[in-house]
Amino acid sequence: MLGRLRVLYLHGFASGPRSRKATFLAAKLRELGFPVEIPDLAQDRFESLTITGQLSYLHQLTEGKPAILIGSSLGGYLAALYAARHPEIDRLLLLAPAFGFHQLWVQALGPERLAQWRSNGTIPVFHYAENRDVPIGYQLMEDAGQFEPFPDVRQPVLILHGNKDTVVPVQQSVAFVRSRPNARVIRLESGHELTDVLDNVWKESESFLLREPKH
């Protein structure tokens, strides 16, 4: 149990460090001797959230040192973006990662709601960690549009994605792994949250996370 790599769990959009998946996986990993951190990626400034800001915060947290990243939904996309730019990251476990985040939002909202968001500056979204509607600024969309939908990750990647996911279609993960021999996707009979198959999530990911570090 000595020398376990540090693990950072990156929560999803409008979520937080106390999410059910985060606490479940953190407990399992700590039992195996992994040091685990679950940062608040919004840093208590949700309205001004951006991809760039979250990546910058992640860089502060990793300090340029090897680590394992676990990411859920938007956190999964962030993990992939970061790993593509930082080869010191050892591996990625991604849970229903929101590849193509910007495009997914464009499709989900449609031109009228996007125009209204741009005009108003903010729109209300339900924040799961706070259990209420909170505003999010349009800078999220402006910033997200500059990032590639499918980051060129070279590290080992395991993706767990629900076949019934209506938020991020499982086809996003299938497309990501198609040309990447370092990545594979396991499809589970679940929706976006995966909270009804957490034991399966752990069963599929445990051996992947226990592999010897490549650094």
Strand-helix topology:
Layout: E1 7-10, H1 20-31, E2 36-37, H2 51-62, E3 67-72, H3 74-85, E4 89-95, H4 101-120, E5 122-127, E6 132-137, H5 139-144, E7 157-162, H6 170-178, E8 183-188, H7 198-210
Parallel strand pairs: 1-2, 1-3, 3-4, 4-7, 7-8
Antiparallel strand pairs: 5-6
Provide a descriptive summary of the structure in words.
This protein is an alpha/beta fold and 215 residues long. It has a single domain, classed as Alpha/Beta hydrolase fold, catalytic domain (Rossmann fold), CATH 3.40.50. The protein has seven helices and eight strands, in the order E-H-E-H-E-H-E-H-E-E-H-E-H-E-H. A six-stranded parallel sheet has the order 2-1-3-4-7-8, with helices on both faces. Strand 3, helix 3 (74-85) and strand 4 (89-95) form a beta-alpha-beta unit. The longest helix has 20 residues, at 101-120. The protein is globular, with a radius of gyration of 17 Å.
The top-level CATH class is Alpha Beta
Quaternary structure of the protein: single chain
The portion of residues forming beta strands comes to 15-25%
Please identify which CATH superfamily we are dealing with: Alpha/Beta hydrolase fold, catalytic domain
CATH architecture: 3-Layer(aba) Sandwich
Distance between the termini: 17 Å
Element-by-element helix/strand order: EHEHEHEHEEHEHEH
**CATH-defined fold name:** Rossmann fold
Mean pLDDT: 96
What order do the strands of the largest sheet run in, or round the barrel if closed?
Answer: 2-1-3-4-7-8
Low-confidence runs: none
Round the Cα radius of gyration to an integer and report it: 17 Å
Number of domains: 1
**Main sheet characteristics:** 6 strands, parallel
Give the CA-based shape: globular
| Helix percentage range | 25-40%
How many helices does DSSP assign?
A: 7
Class of secondary structure makeup: alpha/beta
